[in-house]
Write a structure and sequence with these properties.
The structure holds three protein chains of three kinds. Helix content of chain A is about 80%, strand content about 0%. By secondary structure, chain A is an all-alpha fold. Chain A starts with a helix and ends with a helix. Chain B is mainly α. Chain B has one domain (about 5-210). Helix content of chain B is about 70%, strand content about 0%. The longest helix of chain B has about 40 residues, at about 15-50. Chain C is of the alpha/beta class. Chain C is globular, with a radius of gyration of 19 Å. The chains are: A mainly alpha, B mainly alpha, C alpha/beta. Chains A and B meet through helix 2, helix 3, helix 4, helix 5 and helix 8 of A and helix 1, helix 2, helix 3, helix 4 and helix 5 of B. Bound molecules: sodium ion (NA) (2 copies). One sodium ion binds next to loops of chain A. One sodium ion (NA) binds near residues 414 and 415 of chain A.
Chain lengths: ~475, ~210, ~300
């Protein structure tokens, strides 16, 4: 009884911390993230409502409140982009776009030192323009690019590493499911974030490409460039890859230039690729497989979204986000140091967690704090801590944090992309892939530093659209 | 981690029940996939209609928002059966035999508890919309059908969880490494291989291999 | 006593009535009764009525057009009455409509009591088409707007086109829509005037009704002093809101329209008369549609008389 009283007497922020601790324990012992968050969110609501209105009424109110969330959170228009973004990737594969891209890239940039590696980076960047998920991109290129590199005598650690790393480009270059999720959580314009991802994705690809050339120049027996393609052969390789440019065009035109909203861009892209896949002879059974896999991945993502948002609703009642941002802004150090510490915390967390789960769980608390750190959501660039306006900061932080989450896909112990590549290629062990991917990890840190130092790379395109 | 896990089958009642439920789950998931497919056509029709005939699909946003619950929930039980919901398995993957199955039993009970709560809560949410009234913003579509999808899909999930609890319970008593009707934990590489297969579909993957 | 209040978005002109109410109540009760305002943390805007019915929070704001079937009676004030009314008068009209027994009964289904209006001026258009010369020019224009207004404009050939609020400016930029109808604060929020070429000044075909409601049980269980402090602060909060809206928001919007050199389109008395004629059938439709559910005719005539005054 006294325990019960003590619990009822606690202030909401303390309750928030206890429940958050419980959630972390459940996640660590292996409860599926969506349900761990939903369960603790519900228990938190019970706790808060019971403290306010007595146990019996409190439980009932908590059940009813929890029951509104799955439907409510899922029926958000912008989230309808996610299944179409996933579907595009499956269909693009069936349309033979991956191979066409790789062939074209090989003929155009294969002559560079470490040419096959460079070709892998740029064809993966191209595929990123029709793929919304980085793990899928790595899996596809592990099939296509690694065997050719091995045949030419490239080191298997490098070959598998470059594929694992290149896959991460898919999350910055639109379409990107994770950028949509970020936009929804922070209530920022989806189109602005998708546009913001273009240049950083390109910069990332260039840095990867430069790194490959550098490695090829400095290491002996790295693997030969592929020369000897005529200009005729180069131009012949382009038509197969044209649908990619078509989809990039649609998305650019839709979001930026004047045909439709981002919500429609994804569907139009999927429609074009579908026509292409049917033209290439996709069978009904393959379409069915693609739809099943799309549906499954969609459910997986939506379940974690509503599960975590149930927990976030509890946080709202517990008022934890504002308490956290008061604490962060009250810290006695420069805002930039705080930001870098936050990013380091993400790096550690990302070693163990999957990207979407990590962002969903942390952003509701971290995002308001970062915005407050910069000076609030309507601050002018001139008065802000990071030199960018409130809206600009939310876009900029989104790109950085997504790049950060992607970085975690290639770090041990749970770098999912590395596992996927090792899974597809029996000749490469997981250790091989992790060894091969290490230089790219360094390149990513460099990219993130660049984006922090030069926010213009992120904000230029959204700025042209009238944001920031 | 996400991905497909193997589920073993045999002639036992448990396994037959598992396979029967799996058929239902597969149909529901395909339905969700078809809704996504139709969404693509609806959006395309909306854009083309607007630009060519100046006739957008009336209530396009309302239709999309109503459709979302269908593809977000219909496959939830299928995904659970396949072990497809994300989790951190660095601890669980170190457990073996009876101790592993007992742990899974407890974890599944926790999920069942929150699922039952949500079935009741989401049913009440549906019932409010049904009995008092609720409609979409532009063209006043009733929202109760979409709200009803949630308790229905969660009820199928609850059935799946009961079967898995039965499966884990049996495995915890009998021991062994290969129980039926529950998703098996594989090492990370095997999970990744399964995931890569699912990305490409087994048929097309082999087709791709022939070309290379 | 502490009440949770569920609003959405950010603090803005639209929420100043609630912010002021919270300030006044806390003052009058010496901090004994607090309204703890949350922007979006407690519920999605479309589920605020559900939250009130559940009892998850004690006070909330919502807009009736979000879900007409949840609150059919108060959509009566969104009908096109083709009357130019001041913001202060809108507040008075809403308050009297809220006290009408048919309306009170409707909201009682949600265990809700209507406490305070959030009066909005009549909606006006910002459009990127060539400035309107005659009503016939509405033909083919894609407009985002609420049901009542679009019911009238559709009859002139305008195409009702729904886009999410957050995508309005971009949709206008890209041509998904040509025009949007809003109250000044929403034109300011979406920055439609940066894309538009003209703005209407006297459309007068209605505006949104976005009341502040309280959970009836919570209201009844307040101590007499707290209840008096709450109910006694409503008028002052509305006055503050109206003054702020008129003097800041509307002025700011007018300035933006001038700064962006938008053409101001003012409908002539003849045009207004024609719009009103078209509006009559929209009003008729409303009465017919709800006649089976509640005494829609009485409520309509009650409201019409208030607007006519
Ligand atoms: Na992408
Ligand atoms: Na990792």
């Amino acid at each position: 009884m006294s325990l019960f009283n003590t619990m009822a007497q606690m202030d909401t922020v303390t309750i928030g911390l206890w429940v958050t601790g419980l959630m972390m324990i459940l996640v660590i012992i292996g409860v599926r993230v969506a349900f761990a968050a939903a369960l603790t969110g519900f228990l938190g609501l019970v706790w808060i409502f019971s403290a306010r209105m007595g146990f019996e009424k409190g439980v009932m109110v908590a059940i009813k409140m929890a029951g509104t969330i799955p439907h409510s959170k899922v029926s958000t228009l912008a989230l309808s982009l996610i299944p179409t973004f996933i579907l595009i990737g499956f269909l693009a594969y069936h349309a033979g776009l991956t191979r066409a891209l790789f062939v074209a890239a090989k003929r155009w940039v294969g002559w560079l030192p470490g040419g096959m590696g460079v070709a892998t980076v740029f064809s993966a960047a191209g595929f990123a323009a029709v793929s919304g998920a980085s793990v899928a991109t790595s899996a596809v290129f592990a099939r296509i690019a690694v065997p050719e590199m091995l045949k030419l005598g490239y080191d298997k650690r490098f070959a598998s590493g470059v594929v694992a790393a290149s896959g991460t480009l898919a999350s910055l270059i639109p379409p990107s499911a994770i950028l949509v999720i970020y936009a929804i959580i922070v209530e920022q314009d989806v189109g602005a974030l998708l546009m913001a991802g273009f240049l950083p994705g390109g910069v990332s690809a260039l840095i990867y490409g430069g790194l490959v050339v550098f490695l090829a120049k400095t290491r002996k027996d790295f693997g030969p460039p592929v020369r000897g393609y005529s200009w005729k052969q180069r131009f012949e390789s382009l038509p197969g890859a044209i649908p990619i440019f078509f989809v990039v065009g649609i998305i650019m035109v839709c979001i930026y230039g004047g045909v439709g909203t981002p919500t429609e861009a994804g569907s139009l892209g999927a429609f074009v690729i579908l026509c292409m896949a049917i033209y290439k002879g996709m069978r009904l059974s393959e379409l069915k497989d693609a739809l099943m896999e799309t549906a499954k991945l969609t459910v997986m993502i939506f379940t974690i979204i509503w599960g975590v948002l149930l927990y976030v609703r509890f946080l709202g009642f517990a008022d934890l986000p504002s308490a956290f941002s008061d604490w962060i802004t009250g810290l006695d150090q420069s805002p930039m140091v705080t930001l870098i510490l936050i990013l380091c915390a993400y790096a550690v967390l990302g070693m163990f967690m999957d990207a979407i789960g990590m962002l969903l769980l942390t952003l509701p608390v971290v995002y308001p704090a970062v915005i407050a750190l910069n000076g609030g959501d309507s601050v002018l660039a001139a008065d802000s801590a990071f030199g960018i306006s409130g809206v600009g900061c939310s876009i900029w932080f989104g790109i950085i944090v997504v790049k950060m989450a992607e970085l975690c896909l290639i770090t041990p112990p749970i770098g999912l992309n590395c596992f996927v590549v090792a899974g597809v290629r029996p000749e490469c062990t997981v250790q091989d892939v992790f060894r091969g991917v290490t230089p790219f990890f360094v390149a990513d840190v460099l990219t993130i530093a660049t984006l922090i130092a030069a926010p213009g790379i992120v904000l230029w395109l959204p700025g042209l659209m009238g944001f920031t | 981690m996400a991905g497909s896990h193997t589920v073993l089958e045999d002639d036992s009642l448990l396994s037959r029940a598992d396979q029967l439920l799996f058929k239902l789950e597969s149909v529901l998931t395909l339905l969700g996939g078809i809704v996504i497919f139709l969404l693509v056509f609806l959006a395309t029709a909306n854009v083309l209609g607007r630009w060519i005939f100046s006739m957008p699909v009336s209530g396009y946003i309302d239709w999309v928002e109503q459709a979302m619950a269908f593809f977000a929930f219909l496959g939830i039980s299928y995904t659970k059966r396949e072990g497809g919901h994300i989790r951190m398995d660095i601890l669980v993957s170190h457990l073996h035999g009876r101790f592993l199955w007992f742990t899974e039993l407890v974890l599944t009970l926790l999920i069942l508890a929150v699922t039952l709560v949500l079935i009741y809560g989401s049913y009440l949410h549906f019932y409010r919309a049904y009995s008092i009234g609720d409609s979409s913003l532009d063209i006043n579509l009733p929202t109760w059908p979409a709200k009803l999808v949630v308790p229905v899909a969660l009820s199928v999930l609850a059935l799946r969880l009961l079967l898995q609890i039965w499966g884990y319970f049996r495995a915890a008593i009998e021991g062994g490494d290969r129980p039926v009707a529950v998703p098996l934990i594989e090492d990370a590489a095997a999970v990744a291989a399964a995931e890569a297969d699912s990305v490409m579909g087994s048929g097309s993957a082999s087709r791709e291999m022939e070309k290379s | 006593t502490e009440w949770n209040v569920s609003l959405w978005g950010k603090r803005r002109a639209f929420t100043e009535n609630v912010e002021k109410l919270a300030e006044l109540v806390e003052q009058k009760t010496n901090g004994e009764f607090k309204l703890k305002i949350s922007y979006g943390g407690l519920s999605k805007s479309k589920e605020n009525l559900d939250g009130i019915a559940i009892g998850a929070f004690e006070m909330a704001q919502f807009c009736s057009f979000y879900h007409k079937d949840k609150n059919p009676t108060i959509t009566v004030t969104e009908l096109p009455f083709a009357k130019d009314v001041s913001l202060a008068r809108v507040a008075e009209i809403y308050k009297q409509v809220y006290e009408h027994p048919v309306v009170a009964k409707d909201l009682a289904r949600w265990n809700a009591t209507l406490l305070m209006p959030t009066p909005l001026p009549q909606y006006n258009i910002v459009s990127k088409t060539d400035p309107l010369k005659s009503l016939a020019d509405f033909k083919g224009i894609r407009v985002r707007g609420p049901g009542g207004i679009m019911g009238v404009l559709s009859k002139l050939g305008a195409v009702k086109t729904g886009v999410p609020f957050s995508e309005v400016r971009q949709s206008m930029d890209s041509g998904v829509i040509d025009a949007a109808t809003f109250a000044p604060h929403a034109h300011l929020a979406t920055k439609t005037y940066k894309v538009g070429k003209w703005a209407s000044t006297n459309l007068n075909l209605g505006s949104a009704n976005c009341p502040v409601v309280v959970n009836t049980d919570a209201l009844n269980s307040l101590s007499p002093e707290n209840k008096a402090a709450l109910l006694g602060s409503v008028d002052e909060a509305i006055d503050y809101y109206v003054k702020n809206y008129d003097e800041n928001t509307t002025v700011q919007y007018e300035k933006a329209v001038t700064d962006q050199s938008l053409v101001r389109v003012t409908f002539t008395p003849e045009q207004t008369a024609e719009l009103n004629k078209l509006a009559a059938s929209v009003r008729e439709d409303w009465i017919k549609k709800y006649s089976g559910k509640f005494d829609s005719k009485t409520l309509f005539e009650f409201t019409e008389a208030l607007f006519a005054k």
